[in-house]
Amino acid sequence: MTLHHFVLILHLLAATIWVGGHLLLAICYLPTALKKKDPQIILNFEKKYEKLGMSSLALLIITGIWMAYDFGVTAETWFHFSSGFEKVVSIKLILLFCTFFCAVCAQFFIIPNLKPNNINKMAVIILTVTSIGVTMLILGSTLRYGGI
Ligand code: HEM
Questions:
Q1: Long-range CB pairs of 123-129, under 8 A, 24+ apart, other chains included
Q2: Atom 1 in ligand 1: residue holding the nearest Cα
């Protein structure tokens, strides 16, 4: 096994936790929370998942950038949208910033005032972050064919 292969396995494990956790939240917990108008269901999940989720996101970033460098896609080439591979890495980085933006909105503006009547705002954030995660996974799967 090469070092790159090992890093790729870590990347895939972290992607499984990040995307899987958000799909579980969006498909299983969110509908129940909306039906019962009970924000606590979401908050309980977040409390248990937060550490694992944030560590897996950090691992995705480190391993992703590591592998991009392995392929010669270094920071100087990012956001030039010139080659198929670099395009995918740049889009992944932009989506990563969108994920951070959603996390900041949730942590500072939505979660502190989460009540049964504004649970919809949290639903929008959860569905956005989940869709972004799935998009990142699909984009990642194109890289072995040279990107888009
Ligand atoms: C939510 C975040 C992310 C998810 C869900 C994700 C998911 C994936 C998946 C499923 C693959 C496919 C591997 C394969 O086809 O064998 C992949 C590959 C890859 N990802 Fe990510 N990724 C994420 C974030 C990132 C970030 C932030 C970067 C770097 C800026 C990155 C860079 C790469 C690279 C370079 C590969 C190609 C590895 C190879 O084929 O050797 N990823 N990713």
A1: 123/30, 123/34, 126/22, 126/25, 126/26, 126/30, 126/42, 127/26, 127/30, 128/98, 128/102, 129/22, 129/99, 129/102, 129/103
A2: 133
